[in-house]
Structures are given as C-alpha cells and as structure tokens.
C-alpha cells in the first residue's frame, strides 16, 4: 500500500470531524482553525512569565536584574523547595482556562499545556529529573475522576521523555479547600498532609524531583509536598506549575 494512503485517510477523517464538530478555542469556545488552540483574542490576553524572575520562587521582577537575583520574600523566608517556575500569571485572562481544565473536564487542553510547561521549565528538566504530580485525596479524585496535575505530568513526559512517578506522593488526609484561607491557614491546613508512598520511596530516594501542579497561590501545598519528598530521600525538589498568583516586583512570593 502506498505510504501516503493512511495519511490521506487520516486527513480526510480529520476534515470530516472538523466539519461536524469544528474545533473551538480552549478558553472562550469560539471556532478556531486547529483543535487544541486559542483564538486570536484569548491568546494575546494571557501573560506568560519570563525573565527577569526571582531565581528561587520564579516571581517576575518589574525591572531588569541579574539572572541569579533572589527576591526579598525568599531571602526573608526561603521556601522548602529549591526553585519554582510557572507558565502563566493567574489572572482574569487565564482563570477560566485553568479552571475549565481543573474542574470542567477540559482535558483536551493537556497537550497545549504540556508544551507550555516544557518551555517554561528551562533547566529544571536537566539531569533527567523524576516528575511527581501533586496528589489528590482519593475521595476528591473519585469525585473529579482525574488528577489534573497527573495529566500535566503525563503530557510533559510524552514531550520530554522523562521518568515520572504517578503515585510517588499520597495525600494522607482530606484537607479543606484552600480557596478561602489566608497564607497561615493554608500552611496549617496542608501541614503533614502528604507523604511519599512505599512505591515512591525507591523512585524518589537520591533523585532530583520536579513537582508538577496546576496553580501556585501561596505555595503552601507545594511546600508541604516538597517537605514530604525531602523526608522521603529526594536530593532536591523543584516546582513546575501551569499558572501562579504573583505580583510584578517579586514582593508577592508564592
């Protein structure tokens, strides 16, 4: 059979599907040319985080600084992870996109988000790290049916060819929703809530671990996870998230 035939059949099938169910913007839902993309209005509204940023927490600076500069918050209270990097600023433009992925079954966003994560990670992915998703409590996983952090991890693995441990961490108790809690309450809420699993111990021990999550707000959850990973033997722990709450001058450490 001619090698071009399967490709032609696939292209025809794709065209028929697009005719019946035209691809739509992942954010606002208007028709777009290609599936798994954003429209010309939603794309430029997003704020992607890039240099200059704090070397530790990844919060962007409003002015140019040397590449190894650490913000005041991290100097005052160093986080329990080594470095954090994020793709997007969590704001009015990105909120619906992220929440639709997290709570609205828009798992078709995963390939695009994974590509963004790979670009934002930079040297976090050097030296073949072990990727570990922030876990959900089993009851919450049952209700939601999927762990959005694990989906991001799996998508990143497909792109970068890295090792990962889907069950490396476990949430030992169901915590309250962090949404309405202040930073101190958030830390107390998740304190001791995570532990490296029996299966994860052999994977985590002595490794550079990159913890993957959807949104970094105050950092309470990822710091609790980082502490658990270090207790489980991880040599270093970095954090990679799709979005983060951040002020521009580095004063709003996650």
Could you explain how this protein is built, in words?
The chain has 10 helices and 7 strands. α10 links the parallel β6 and β7. It has a 5-stranded parallel sheet. Strands 4-5 form a two-stranded antiparallel sheet. The C terminus is likely disordered. The N and C termini lie far apart (56 Å).
What is the total domain count? Answer: 2
| Order of strands across the main sheet | 1-7-6-2-3
- What structural class is derived from the secondary structure elements? alpha/beta
The run of helices and strands is: HHHEHHEHHEEHEHEHE
Beta-strand portion reads 5-15%
Low-confidence stretches: 8-19, 250-254
Task: Quote the CATH topology of the largest domain.
Answer: Rossmann fold
How many strands, what sense, and barrel or not for the largest sheet?
5 strands, parallel
**CATH level 1 class label of the largest domain:** Alpha Beta
Radius of gyration: 19 Å
Number of helices: 10
User: Architecture of the largest domain, according to CATH?
Assistant: 3-Layer(aba) Sandwich
Mean pLDDT: 86
- What distance lies between the first and last C-alpha atoms, to the nearest angstrom? 56 Å
> What coarse outline follows from CA principal-axis ratios?
globular
Count of individual beta strands: 7
What percent of residues adopt helix (DSSP H or I)? 25-40%
């Amino acid at each position: 059979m001619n090698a071009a035939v399967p490709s032609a059949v696939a292209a025809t099938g794709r065209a028929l599907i697009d005719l019946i169910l035209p691809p739509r913007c992942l954010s606002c839902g208007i028709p777009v040319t290609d599936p798994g993309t954003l429209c010309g209005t939603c794309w430029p509204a997003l704020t992607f985080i890039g240099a200059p940023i704090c070397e530790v927490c990844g919060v962007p600076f409003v002015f140019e600084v040397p590449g190894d500069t650490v913000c005041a918050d991290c100097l005052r209270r160093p986080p329990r992870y080594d470095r954090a990097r994020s793709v997007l600023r969590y704001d009015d433009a990105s909120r619906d996109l992220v929440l639709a992925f997290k709570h609205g079954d828009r798992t078709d966003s995963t390939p695009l988000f994974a590509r963004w994560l790979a670009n934002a990670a930079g040297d976090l992915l050097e030296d073949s790290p072990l990727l570990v998703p922030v876990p959900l409590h089993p009851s919450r996983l049952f209700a939601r049916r999927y762990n959005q952090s694990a989906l991001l991890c799996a998508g990143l693995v497909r792109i970068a060819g890295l090792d990962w441990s889907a069950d490396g961490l476990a949430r030992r108790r169901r915590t309250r929703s962090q949404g309405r809690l202040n930073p101190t309450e958030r830390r107390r809420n998740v304190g001791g809530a995570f532990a490296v699993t029996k299966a994860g111990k052999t994977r985590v021990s002595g490794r550079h671990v990159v913890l993957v999550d959807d949104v970094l707000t105050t950092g309470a959850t990822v710091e609790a996870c980082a502490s658990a990973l270090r207790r489980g033997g991880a040599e270093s722990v970095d954090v990679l998230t799709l979005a983060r709450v951040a002020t521009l001058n580095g004063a709003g450490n996650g």
